[in-house]
Amino acid sequence: GAGVSQSPSNKVTEKGKDVELRCDPISGHTALYWYRQRLGQGLEFLIYFQGNSAPDKSGLPSDRFSAERTGESVSTLTIQRTQQEDSAVYLCASSLTLADEQFFGPGTRLTVL
Amino acid sequence: AQSVTQPDIHITVSEGASLELRCNYSYGATPYLFWYVQSPGQGLQLLLKYFSGDTLVQGIKGFEAEFKRSQSSFNLRKPSVHWSDAAEYFCAVAPGSNYQLIWGAGTKLIIKP
Lengths: 113, 113
Fold this sequence. Notes:
Shape of chain B: globular
Number of strands of chain A: 10
Order of helices and strands of chain A: EEEEEEEEEE
Distance between the termini of chain B: 41 Å
Radius of gyration of chain B: 13 Å
Structural class of chain B: mainly beta
Oligomer: heterodimer
Strand content of chain B: over 45%
C-alpha cells in the first residue's frame, strides 16, 4: 500500500512569506507527527495528532507555526512570516496508534531566502 | 531534561568489518528505545526497538542492539557491514507512555571499499 506522502518535496520562499506543507498519512493510521530536521542535526518534535484528541503542540517553536488535521486524514503545517532559521527538512510520520512504529514520509525541504 | 547522545558524528569502517554505533540517554526510568536509518534520498526507516524483556533485540538488515540499564546505553551493532549500509543512523527514545520521540543528532556511517 501507499506510504506517507508529503508535498511539496522542495519549497523555496522569501523571508516573511507564509508556507503550507502537506502530509498524507497511511490510511487507517490514527496518529500523525510533524518533525523538523535542521542540517546535520537530529529530528526535533513539533506536534502530534492522535485521533480526535487535542493535539500535543508542545514542540512548536513559536506562534508562527501551526498545524491542522481533519479527522484521520491529511494534515497541513503552516509557517507564517517565515524566517531564515525556519530552513530545514520538515518530516511527517504516521502510526497505527501512538504505541506503534512511526512510518516517515520523504520530507519537504524548505529554504527561506 | 531528557536527552539522547550519539557521541560519534561520523564513523568509517571497511566493508565486511564489524560495527558498533553508540547511543546514551538521560532519563530516570527505562524509556522505549529505537534505532532508525536514513539512507540518501530515502525516508527514515525503523531498524529495531526495545520496549521491555530481552535486552538484546534483533532488527532488520542484520542489525541488533543491546540495552544496558546500568550504562543508560542502547548501542547498535552489526557483525559485518555492507556498502549498502552507508547511511545516517539515529537513536531515539520515548519516555514511558509518552510517544513523543527524542532524537539523537545522528551518526553518519561511511563504508570503505
